[in-house]
Structure formats: structure tokens, C-alpha cells
Amino acid sequence: MESNVNIGVIGYGYWGPNLVRSFSEISGAKVRTVSDFNPKLLARVQARYPAIQVTTDCQDIFEDPKIDAVAIATPVSTHFDLALAALKAGKHVMVEKPMTVTSEQALRLIDEADRRNRVLLVDHTFVYTGAVRKMHELVSSGELGDILYYDSVRVNLGLFQHDINVLWDLAVHDLSIMSYILQSKPCAVSATGISHVPGGLENIAYLTLFFENNLIAHVHVNWLAPVKVRRTLIGGSQKMIVFDDLEPSEKIKVYDRGITINGDAESVYRMLVGYRTGDMWAPQLDMTEALRTEGLHFLRCIEHGERPITGGDAGLQVVKILEAATESMKKQGQLVELDTVEVAA
Amino acid sequence: MESNVNIGVIGYGYWGPNLVRSFSEISGAKVRTVSDFNPKLLARVQARYPAIQVTTDCQDIFEDPKIDAVAIATPVSTHFDLALAALKAGKHVMVEKPMTVTSEQALRLIDEADRRNRVLLVDHTFVYTGAVRKMHELVSSGELGDILYYDSVRVNLGLFQHDINVLWDLAVHDLSIMSYILQSKPCAVSATGISHVPGGLENIAYLTLFFENNLIAHVHVNWLAPVKVRRTLIGGSQKMIVFDDLEPSEKIKVYDRGITINGDAESVYRMLVGYRTGDMWAPQLDMTEALRTEGLHFLRCIEHGERPITGGDAGLQVVKILEAATESMKKQGQLVELDTVEVAA
Amino acid sequence: MESNVNIGVIGYGYWGPNLVRSFSEISGAKVRTVSDFNPKLLARVQARYPAIQVTTDCQDIFEDPKIDAVAIATPVSTHFDLALAALKAGKHVMVEKPMTVTSEQALRLIDEADRRNRVLLVDHTFVYTGAVRKMHELVSSGELGDILYYDSVRVNLGLFQHDINVLWDLAVHDLSIMSYILQSKPCAVSATGISHVPGGLENIAYLTLFFENNLIAHVHVNWLAPVKVRRTLIGGSQKMIVFDDLEPSEKIKVYDRGITINGDAESVYRMLVGYRTGDMWAPQLDMTEALRTEGLHFLRCIEHGERPITGGDAGLQVVKILEAATESMKKQGQLVELDTVEVAA
Amino acid sequence: MESNVNIGVIGYGYWGPNLVRSFSEISGAKVRTVSDFNPKLLARVQARYPAIQVTTDCQDIFEDPKIDAVAIATPVSTHFDLALAALKAGKHVMVEKPMTVTSEQALRLIDEADRRNRVLLVDHTFVYTGAVRKMHELVSSGELGDILYYDSVRVNLGLFQHDINVLWDLAVHDLSIMSYILQSKPCAVSATGISHVPGGLENIAYLTLFFENNLIAHVHVNWLAPVKVRRTLIGGSQKMIVFDDLEPSEKIKVYDRGITINGDAESVYRMLVGYRTGDMWAPQLDMTEALRTEGLHFLRCIEHGERPITGGDAGLQVVKILEAATESMKKQGQLVELDTVEVAA
To answer: Is B40 a member of any domain?
Structure first.
């Protein structure tokens, strides 16, 4: 390709190095500048990528007319200001998850991107893995039947974050996966949790999502578990999925199991439940690194003016649920309804 | 022992055969009579144990002066009437879990047993396993430090019960274990769930228990899961336990892992969280069958007038939580407080 | 069926009780007599099965004209004499594995059964499991392609036998499975092993079997392993199987993996090896207890004069390999050829 | 440290990039030059490490007086010539495993290094992992008791090598671990194997090692397995180890299991075997990358004139066993004795 998309990356802490490495390996993209407050981190950039410019002032990125797109990998509380500035400077934006601290901020960014006709992609990385794309395919094709539940356990001895609770840190992954896979949206949530650090944020949380149809979802997150678990069950009326992200190769298993329900002619009060058990099947998955798939998708959206599959609307939906869940958690499980007014596509 | 304890077993469906077999193998106990409505089931008793009397009328058991104790393994809705009749007939009672349908019924049975000075044991079988007794020992000895959470996942493609929801069927196990292991009692619950059978009882449920101290518990049950999971995490401030009941031998693993929290002198707003990781240790467990240990305990309580470790008070606590959880589930997670007035010991 | 097959069981030690229980549950069979040297074991039979006759003298079984078939579950060294006496008394015979101590003995039994037109079934129990039958089906159908290797690890902290080494105790299972599944027979073996008990029999052994075509087999057995492993790999040119007998449900996994080999036109010295990786599939298995399937097969052979699928010839093949392997093991791996003269079918 | 050790790396194919990266991250070491025949691979070096010199002629490395040490990561057949040239040029040498193609070559390199007083380290990387160092500690301390067996399974769908068979590719890891952990040396081997590629090298092999004392070892390697297994059992008279290198954290498990053997006073022919089962314990392991530990060790040996723990003698022992095993494999398991004359330390 003749013309590269020039990218500025803001933030070189935990995730930024992955973005820089990944974009560096994609032909058609070129990381032009990296900014971070911390000069030590910038020294690492220079040692490893001598051709990349570094700066402690992200304004340099916004003001550089050669930069087409900005990737933002900073703490959540800064996402809104940085993304808005980038959009106002006419840049396409890829922003880490969670998209923003509030849904108002998310709506404002969506609006700004729309008005300026810029791509706004939220980095819901999991959506670009082979495993999640395979689950999307299985659900969309109808092979699972009606989806009855989504149930995820995501626990480990994890870094205690100081600015966000465990829902915003870990449940965000499941919410982004659900937003991609499930064809309906939750209408209310109930959440419970606890903080074991005096004055700290919740480090264990349990989130139930209610949907209008016969579907329920639950997410179970914990920073204080002795073992790492990453297991999601998706129950369908025809088949069921177990997604174990710690399995090195067989991450997705599809079980031909379930129940069949028949009305009982003799009694309106009794349902007959029958059980089906059959084969299990583990489809081979595309092992391309998710960040590569996502980076290529970002470039394609920029070049062809397409909407990203994890655009501002997906980011907004996740933030709305996290807001509602945090509110419910403060009230020890009290139901919090989600307005289901959609952003016009 | 010269004299046997003569036992009558009511109900020979799913669990009754285990009780009959187990008591038959204990010297000092003798199963004298088995009753069941279903003559076909009684024919099985006769084929296998020609020396045991059978009857379709459980009154025969209550009226037999040679019977010292009655074991009740019938549907939950019948527990109260049968146990009350047995106590009134002067028999010691072992009753399946959940003890009763309501906490009022449970209180009534406790009262009756106390007044008549009879043993009332609730068959919280798990409490008598080597694994749960080892966890009790680890918690009681203080080796885990302060208990921070109890978290259990108990799911499989299970029999859909027609008379009780999945909490009463599966969560009852965790509640009985908690009642034995944890030194404090929950003060409130929040539960959510769903029924996938039209007009049926909930087949998936999520239950959070709040305690007065820095402790939270969560129980996760599902009759419609493609795989069987039986995993409990107990987090302590010093060590943590993973209890996987499906492991053939290493059911209990103790992890020397956790966090250390230090106040930060420079800022009251920041806590310093440090991480500890160390060895893991899987203690050897007593592999005696739980029903045997429990049967021997029942006999000893009868002979020496001791209070069972799973007596009426434990049964009552479990029923109270199940009542409250079912109420919360109907209200989609709304908090339901548990009165903490204790039964006088 | 009007008329039962009356069975005499000789030996009520480790395996005999399973045979008695299993035949008792099969309609069409009736255990008439059990013999054992040990009166205590016979007392157990009487307590559990009052209708079964017991005797310390197995002659009573041979001389009872009402007994049609004899099942022999005694130490290996006694198999030959007992089976021969039973055949001479006109009984059909089911004998534990290994069939005999020597291949001469096995041939003699085959001959006796043939001349008297009696059924002689060797209790290669694994052959009657759903897992092994499924593997047989997959191999026979050609779905795996050409079979390239059979590789089994069968280790645990097991009972040290005093009369047979670990090959005769554990490898016998794999040899019986191979004899059923593989369409060719080994032509030579090399075995190594060690005894850790002074003057004792080998408690660890490694056995390689060579075949005429492009196939190799290896069996790895150990009575002194800290963990139990039961894993067999079967490599085919098209697909491969992993059989893990400790998995509760997914015992058989079929992998669409392998290599493709192409001649390289430019060089006779180079082969091009390509790799294929694809889906994995775990077929549902028939969970009928193997002993039940085997018992029904034994009855059918008796009634219809059919040859059992684990007849004397299969038993003989296994004994011949065990003899050769033991000889090779004494010579620290030296090749021992197997004559491939077949028993006339 | 004032003065860096300047390193030349020969070969930038599979392993060379790891050496370059690892030495680049060690203070006290400096990669000065990388050589490879392939200019494309050198371009990668330049892109990533602009300060490193590159050359297609390894003579440039030997002739550079500023280079102190040479790391050789080329095909096995070239190890001898390159290592000899490096030693003759006065360089310290770190050479990939297997050290050489023949034991004569290995002896010649040991001799050259000794005469010139240069460090000769063989890159037995596993020896520098936390897991293997822990096993060494457990064996050396006597905690396991007498070592009874070493048993390793190392199989996967692996790259078919064109210049070395599967023993030289995979068993080399186990032989290097054994050479470090076990206090005695094997005196003879028996090996079997097969090639599934016409005219190719063996892709499945089974190797038994005999020792003079009551110890046996077995290594089981396969390039054509559908699943990856990396499991080693080490049996001691007191305790036993399971080393599973695919476990993310609990790689080493120590089992308090075994047998106790007592002479039987009444019979010289009978030994009494008792079984012990006890706790399992998974010690925390040092997670430092092995190459870093090894690189630091190499520097220390250079600076202080110490002998490396994986020096030429360890490399020689491994090559001798591989030679003998390959010979035995050609003869279908025939015993090949190893001379046990030691290299003078």
C-alpha cells in the first residue's frame, strides 16, 4: 500500500507497548509518535523503536498534521478529554476500554465522531479473538438455538486498581463480549460486591443482567482468588458452549446437550423435561493475535469509512451497564433498570 | 455393643437406599423396617435385604416399640409431618435436607425434640466428608486468617425438580457447609435467578450472602449447565482454599497467597496493597464415606445424649436463608434481611 | 427367555463379586453356585444372595449337571487346571485375564473347547466398554487412516502382585485392547523393566511392539507412580485419538491432526512434511457397564454357538506377547520374535 | 560493572533471537555482533537492535579482538567446527545442545577449552529453570530418599527435523535434566523407535537407561502426537515428584507417597509391601527466565574462572547417551553399554 496510516499512541504503561508493537507489525500502519508523562517509559520506546518520535506532551500528537489516528491507552478517567481533543483535531480514535467514566461522556464522543465523520473504535480486544468470533458465529447461525444464559467466572489474584472497581476492570471484558455476541440488550441489573481494603473499591463483585426474553446473564469477578479462572458458559436451547480461555488450544467446546420441554396433556401444572446428551466438539480457532485483527479492522474502517464492530455504541452500552451495576452494588443488589433507548445507528 | 439401635427408614427413592446400605454396614445399628408408598421399591428392599421388614404404611414404623430411631428420606414437603409424628412417638430422628419447607416448621421440630429429649439430626451429608471436616479444621485453627469470602459454583445438567427450585436443591449443600465452617452468620441476602421451563421453578440462581464483618459469600447453582462443576473458593487473609469435589484425590488445596494492606503515611486516601504468593499444599483427607461417619455420629448422640453437629439449629439456619433467598429472587435481587435471633442452645 | 443359563462362579476375591453381581442383574442368567477356598468370603455371598449355593470345593460346580457355564476368577496360575476341568465337564467357560501362564496352556484350552464345542471366553473386560468399542469403530471404518502407532501409559500406586509382574497385571489391558482394535499382529517385542522389591517381580516395565507394516506400539506400566494415569494415544495418518479413561465423560477425543508427506521433485533426499490441525470431537459413548455387555455377549454365544469376540485366540495372543515380553525384559530389551502362525479359526 | 563481556552470536534462526534478546537485557553483557548466512535474518537484527553489528561471515566474529565470548545457535552438524574455531580464537563459548554430533568431537572441544582455559558452556537451558533447580534441590537434600526411577513423556505435533532424529531433538532435554539431577550415570541403554516418513529419521522413540544401582530411567518422545504432554515422574523411596511443565504455576508437585518393604520373618520368599499415602505439596518456584539465569552464570564463570554447571562434561555425557541410544534403536532395542570412564574434572 502506497500510503500508511500514521498513528500517535498516548500512554506507554501496561497496554501501550502492545499497541505500538502490534501497529508496528501491520503493513499499512506506522506508529509516528508515542507520548507519555513518564520519560523513563519513553526511553524504552526509543531503545526499541529508534524511528518513533516521543514526547511528554500529547498536544504534539494532536497538532501533528501527519498523524491520522490516535490510540489512547491511559487511565480511564482521562479517556474522555483525550479522545475529545483527538476528534476535534480531526483524528480517528481508538480508545481503551472502558470507553469513559460516564455514559454522558460516551454519548458526547459518539456525537463528536459522527459530526466529524471520524472513526471511533473502542478497544474491546476480546471481540477480535478467534474464540469470541467463533462464538458469535455459532450464536448468529442459530446452531445453539435460543440463548438461555451467559455465565462467566473471571477471577485471579489480580492487581488492585486504585481508580476503578473490579467490575470496571474485569467485568468489562464480559460485557464487551456479550454486547457482540448476544442479539438482545439487558434491561436491568442487580449487583453485589465487597471491598476488603479499608476505604477501597470493590475487589469482588457479582453481576446479574436481566433481559426481556428468556435470557439471564451473570458475571463473577474477583481480584483476590488464589487461582486463575476464565470460564464462560453459554446455554442454548439446542447446544451449549464452554469457553475456557486458559486452555491452550481447545478454548471453545460445543456440547450437544440440553433439555426438551413438552407440555403434559393430562395436567397444565406439570411440564415434562427430557434430557439430551450427545457429542462434544471443539472447533479449530483462528489463532491470529486479536490486536492484529483489530488493528487491521481499524485501518479498514478508516480507509473505507466503515463503522467499527466495536464502535462508540458498543462502548456506550458497556459503560451504561457498569454505571448501573455500580449503583446496584452500592444498594446491595437492588434492581437498577437500564433505559433501552438506542443510539441511532 | 450389646444392644443395637433399631432404625426405621421412611422413603426408598433416591437417597433411602444409601441410608439402608450405610446403616446395614454399621455395627450397633440395625435397619428393622423400611416404608415407602411404592410396592415396587419395597420389593427391591426384600430382594436385597431379606431380613428387613417392609411396609407401605409408615405408621407401622411409628407404632413399633422396638424402633428407636427414624430416618426420613422423602420429598421435602413431607418432612415436617413425618418428623413430628416420629418425635411424638418417642423416636430419634434423622431427616433429609432441607429440613423443612418453612422456618416455622423447623422451629416446631426443634422444640418438640428438645421437650422430648430426642436427637434431631439433619442430614447435611457434606459436613461429614473428610474434605469439609478438613476445611473446618483449617478455618477453626486460624490458619487461613480472617475469612474474607466463600464462593461456590455448583452446576451441572441436573434433574429438574418439580417441588423445589435449584436453590433448595443445590445451594442447600453450600449453606450447610457454610453453617458448619464459618463462625459468623449471614445477616442479609440478595438472590437472582430464572426459570427456563414455563411456569416452572428457577433452574439457575445466584445467591449473595452478606455478613456483619468483612465477609461475603456467593453461591452459583444451575441445573442446565453442559459440564459439571463443584468448586468452592474460601479466601482468608493468610491463606486460601480451593475445594474441588470432582478431583479424585486432591480435593482440598491450600494456597499461601493473599494480599497485605498497609496504611500509607503520606496519604489517607491511598492504601498500599502487596501481594504474597507461596507454596500450595494438598492435605491428605480421611476417605471414610460421609454417611458412615454421620451414622456413627447419630448413634453416639443417641447413646450419650449429645447434640448433633448438624442438629435442628443448623437445619433451621439453612431453611431461613433459603426462604429469604427465594423471596429476594422473586424481587430480582432486592435485599432481604435475616433476623439473627438465635435459637437457645 | 424361558430357560436361564445357570452359572457357577469360582473365586470370590477381588473380581468374583463383580461377576456375581453382574450376572445376577442379567435376565437369562442365574448364578447357581459360588465356590471359594475361604469360608469368610462365602459367608458374604450368603448374606447378600441367600438364594445362591456356596461351596469350598469347586468340584461341586463341575459335577452339577444343572450348571451350564463356569466363570473363573482365581489367581492366574490356577486358570488352566480349572478351565480344563470345566470344559471336560462340558461347561462353557469365561476365564479371567491373563488367560493362562503359558501359551501352551492357552492352546490346549482352545483345542479342548473346540473339540467339545463349548464357548471359551476370556474376560478382556475393556473390550466391552463403550470407549474401546468406539475406538474399534473409528479404526475399522478407516476414519483414522492408516494406523501409525498405539501408545499407552497405565501407571498408579498399585497393589504389588506376588505371582505376576506388572506386565501381566497392567499391560494385559492394553494388549487385549490392541488385539481387538488393530488389524495386524505384532511380530516382535522389546521390553525393559525393573524390580524395586528385592527378589520381587518387575514393578515398572516398558514394552515396545513391532509390527510388519508402518506401525509401532508401546505400553508403559508402573505400580509405583504417585499419580494415576490411564492415557492411550492412537495415531492415524488421517486422525488421532486420545483415550483418557480417567475423564468422567469425554474419554475419547478424536483430533483432526497429522502430517502430510509429499515427495520433493528436486531432491530424493528431502521429504516435505506438512502439518494439519483441525477440529477435535468427543463422541458420546455407550455408558453400559462393560461386564453387563460382556455377560450378554457370553449368553448369546452360548445360545447361538457364536465365537466370542474375546475368545481363546485373543487370550492366546495376549499370553504369547506377555511371554515374549517377559523374556525380552530379562535380557534388557533384546528383541524377541513372535511366531505369527495363526490358530485356525 | 565497568567492563562488559562482549558477545558474538552465530546463528539467528530459531534460538538465536532469544540469546540476543536475553544477553541484551543482562547488564554486564553486550551483544556486539550477530552473524548468519541469511541477510534477511540480519535485517531483522538491524531493525530491532541498531547498535549491533551484523555479518554473513562468522570469521568476523572470531577475528574481532573486542569479542570475549561466542554463543553458537546453528544446526548441530556445525557446532564442532564453529566452537573449535571460537576456542582457538581465544573466545569463551556457549554452544547449543546437543553439544556435537559425536562424543569424539565433544571430547576434543573439552580438551581445547581446558588447554586454553576458556569457559565452555553447553546450553542445557532446562537446567536453569526454577522447576529443575527445585528438583535438584529436593533430590540432593535427600528428601526424596533413594531415587528409584526417572520417567518422562515429551510428545507433541512437532516440527519434523531433517538432520536429527526425535531423540536428539527432544530426549536431549531429559538427558540434560537427568545429568544435572541424578547423582549416578547410566551404564547401558535400550531404545526403540520408528520413522513414519519414508527414508526419514525416527519421529517416535522410547529410551530406557539402566543404572548400576536400583534406578531406571525412561524417556518417551514423539513428533506425531495430537496433544502436547511434558510430564516427568521421579520416584524416590521416601517421596515422589510429578513435574508437569505445561502447568502455568504448579509445575512441581511433591507427593508423600510410596511403599515400605519389610522382610518377612516367616518366609524368605515373601516381602511385605506396605503403602504410604500422604500430603501433596507444590513449592513455589523461582520464575526468573532460564536464559537470564544461564547468561548470568556464563558471565560469572568467565569472570571468576568457574566451571559451568552445564559444562563440556555434561554436554559429552548427553551426546554419548544419544549415540548409544541411536545405535540401540537401529538394533530394535538391543542393549548398548556406555563406558563410564569419566572426564577428569
So the answer is: yes
